[in-house]
Amino acid sequence: MKADRLLSILLLLQTRGRVSATELAERLEVSVRTIYRDVESLSAAGVPVFTERGRHGGINLLPGYRTDVTGLTADEARALFVLSAQGAHSDLGLDGALGSALRKVMAALPAPHRPAAERVSERILVDPARWMQGAQPAVGSGPDLGELQYAVFADRRLRLRYRHGGTPAPVEYTVDPYGLVSKASVWYLVADLHGEPRLFRADRVLAAETTEEAVRRRPGLGLGEVWAALREQVERIPKEVPVRVRVRRGRLDMFLRIHGGRVAELPPEAGAGPAEEWVEVAMAFPAPAAVLSLLAFGAEIEVLSPPAARRELARAAAEALRLYQDQPCRDQESGVVRTTSR
After folding, report:
1. Residue 81: left if φ>0, alpha if ψ -120 to 50, beta else—which one?
2. Which of 135, 150, 178, 292 has the CA that lies 20 to 30 A from 195?
3. Strands 156-162, 171-183: parallel, antiparallel or unpaired by DSSP?
4. DSSP structure class, residue 264
5. Where residue 310 falls among pLDDT bands split at 50, 70, 90?
């Protein structure tokens, strides 16, 4: 621990020049007294470090005491520091390690490239979450990614207690892990189950135990190849059902923001005209039942065809109507149960 701290002090001094003992103590989360002891240790080891007292004093290295890594271009330096904006290291518990690694890289960069690398964190921000979607709560109270990571790097089989979506009872599996993949801020375990590739959402793992058995991966396959095959299975688009709808022009912008990926054809004059007029739009869905997502727009959207899609919407609307007309509702404040009148 002390050796790592000494290296961090050295790299910070190489990067920043003069740094006060107070600032070093705050950044490394130790006392000022510990910083001065560390400076003495560095000096005893032959590092040309010295302190200056006074209002503008601090801890310094002799000019020219640094190591440059040659061969890095400005773009390569910026690319390295984009890593700090990705967010996956937080999920893996590697925040501290990444910060330490970037300090080491910064100290080793050629001086002309340091300002550009430092500006990356000020100019580039990667937010992996989708709009109107906060952090996803864990499905169960199972382990974090630590146990899954351990099995992956130890090349051991994993015993999982796992809950599938829409299935109330968990099941138990013994799997052969290839690795972990983060996609759209969701972590997945890629593993073989009985020799077949499978995806397991990390937030559906209720319990995980690394066994003493060596992993049994299929020969010649790595994480990249298995993930590519699984992704193709998930993203394979079935033959889609053409659907025609009409949308109130006043809601067209919102409709396109939400369902634009399903739009197959939009009239050229769609954006011109009174807000209450209807605009016909050609869409495509994987199945007639998928049009239920349009119910969020209420009477501002009408599905014109096919009849099967209209029946799905009518059925869902009728079920919702029966729920709110016939079922008793509870006054949450008084706890009184009363029946909604027709």
Report:
1. alpha
2. 150
3. antiparallel
4. E
5. very high
